[in-house]
Amino acid sequence: MQPPGTNKIRVGMLLGMFLCLHFAEAQVTEKVDVPYEIKWKGIEKHAQRVVLKSASRIESLQDTPPPSIPLLQKRVDDDLTRLTLLMQANGYYLASMDAAIDKSTTPITVTLICKPGRLFTIGNQTFHYVGNHAPEKPWTPYLKSTDPASTRAIEESEARMLRHFKNNGHPFPRILSKDYVLDEEKTNMDIHYEIDPGRPMRMGHLQIAGLSAVHEKAILRQVSWQLGDRYDLRQVESFEKDLILTGLFSKVELSPLVSKELPNQIDFTLTVTERYFRTLSFGVNYRSDVGWGAKSSWEHRNIFGYGERFKLDLTVSEDESIAAAAIRKPGFQIQNQSLLLGATASEETPDAYTSLSFESYVGLERTYTRKFSTQIGLAYKYSTVEQIGEEEIYGLLSLPLQSHWDSTRNDLNPLTGHRLTAQVVPYTDLLNDDLNFGRLQLIGSRYLTIRSRPQLVLAGRATLGSLVGADSGDIPADERFYAGGGGSVRGFTYQSIGPREEGEIVGGTSLMELSLELRARLTETWGFATFVDGGMVTSEDSPFSDEPIQWGSGVGLRIFTGLGPLRLDLAYPLNPNDDQESRLQFYISLGQSF
Fold first, then answer.
1. pLDDT digits (tens, 9 = 90+) for 207-243
2. Cα separation values, 213 from 13, 207, 218, 460, Å
3. Cys bridge to 414: 2, 270, 447, 536, which one at CB 3.0-4.6 A?
4. What is the value of pTM for the model shown?
5. Is 216 in contact with 208 (CB distance < 8 Å)?
6. How far apart are CA 208 and CA 198, in angstroms?
């Protein structure tokens, strides 16, 4: 500290260092004989109250009192140092602490007296660039004058500053010196930096090692920069992540190195380890309204050597049999675009209708970010559909359009984020010139972690759908909307919600589904859920109708595995239809319900 009379204190070492002090206490095997209670003074309504009490070892070790008064005093002294440093690190640089031990009480009373002082905020920030290379894009301060001058905030600001230079052409920036000056009168901190941004660099050549079955072009098409572009760390990191997401490699290591020939160029060496490309999977599920089902698939993620994914799926259950083949060719024409080809043969025999169909599809998928993608395609479906004794043959040509946003990080067990899918599909029947209609559907879900331990996640989903351009009776029965069952409104039997003719479900032209689920994970393996689902299907054009919503509710057990949560749900209809034969429904499957 400077001599008395000055109002400024230099705290160079203090700001950058908050040490967690751990002092070993003598271990004893005798019965403890110095129990104590704690009283806090000076922070009863202070913002640091919870932080200090959480960090206090006096508080956390109260159930294991020391065996002697000197060891209790040592514990108190350690806390005074630790908590003083904590308050200073949080911006209370004039903070002090004291303690009083009253030995006349039983148990002994330890009073912690806190004087946090005033909170210091950020003052003037100056940046002096040294060296031979001025930054192409100077740093704009991240911290504002009203922000607390805490250690964490300042360290985060400095990390962002270095990151800024790395994103804008300077891969080797350095902070040469930093000076923090406290002004007691203004209760703020002035900060001065000397920065060497380093030589501006350009993106150079890429050398690849470790390839065997994957062609080099499958990697080069992932590169988003051109030779000679300004160095940008974001592009380097994105390139690494994109390679991992291809599923072709178990290890990706990208090493930058200054070029020997061109001192202002960064060359890269990429070392990869290829994965096993084939996957065979098998799964079963059970729904009390339908029965058992099984699904198997075989996938090859590099069938032609350029990262093409070829997949065969077979699904068999009591109400459907589906065989499908699909291929995805990434990097089609442009980097972020994939060519999609598929064919599906299916037989469906639910209570509402019987359908035998074959469908082929060709489309393009474009990924704009890791969260947002769109699809456009052309599909043809030839089908024979029977409902209430009437059989029709259709040849539907369609143009599926879809946009998808997904900010979650786990397909089978999302914890945070949201998903939104919008679909528009116009249809025309090539075997019946008079039939033209369109499908509009919007599906959204939201996931919010409201507690970490034990983990509590609140999940919600809403689905709206509408078929427009034709009467419900003219639209093929297997293209209409139905609700009820494990993927819809649990508690109701499969496809049991909707309009009826002659006592039989016939489906509708509008759909609304709502779900709310509270998911708890109590241990690494076990968890449970409670939920309520609602759904409505009508023959009107709009999903917003005066028709009553059918509600189902229930509870579920979750067994968390390496593949995802195994879901066992028990559901009951709250306002069942008269023909609902079984009121209690049971579902088993892998992955959350949505």
1. 999 999 999 999 998 898 999 999 999 999 999 998 9
2. 54, 17, 11, 43
3. 447
4. 0.76
5. yes
6. 27
